[in-house]
Amino acid sequence: MRVVLASGNSGKLRELTTLLAPLGFELVAQSVLGIHSPPETGATFMENALIKARHAARSAKGAALADDSGVEVDALGGRPGVYSARFAGENASDEDNVHKMRAELHGVPAEFRQARYHCVIVFVRGPEDPEPLFAHGTWEGQIALEPRGAGGFGYDPIFIPAGLHRTAAEMTSVEKNAVSHRARALLALVTELKETGLAS
Ligand code: IMP
After folding, report:
1. In a domain, 200, yes or no
2. Which is deepest, 22, 30, 68, 194, by most CB within 10 Å?
3. For position 191, which CATH number holds?
């Protein structure tokens, strides 16, 4: 089955292709089809993922897959959540967002800097699919005040996964992709696809 991926992120395409190709899914990035991302106007990861998936499905007239993710910090009352990419402003860079996070958590003791990444993945069979499949994955950790490491992206230089002393940016991509919120959501989606008979 050909499935349009509602993302232009080549890292995500690679990660998703590895897991979904053995199930007979051929993933095509929406950018290849000239499809642009719609505004993420939802209040939750689920809403935003569904907005992206439906938009891609409508434009490509077929099945689509989308994910939405972000980080939730306890000391910030769950912020930035769905606004993670825009934490420091509409066109903020990863560095801007990390800088703002460090500034907001300045002086906050480690035990209150607990955080978790969330990822929601949605699969729709077509634009009007009345029963989209949803899968959710989380990755627990703590926000560090000093950035370390050059791998990953986003908040990885200041995210220390629970049980580790390294930041996510100090992990190899293979290590991260085995345990991340996105990997967990994807595995849950694969289980759902098999349960609903969409994959074997
Ligand atoms: P989106 O799911 O592509 O909209 O990403 C939302 C934002 O959440 C990203 O721009 C990052 O700031 C953050 N984020 C999501 N997943 C990760 C991750 O694996 N590492 C670091 N930051 C992430």
Report:
1. no
2. 68
3. 3.90.950.10
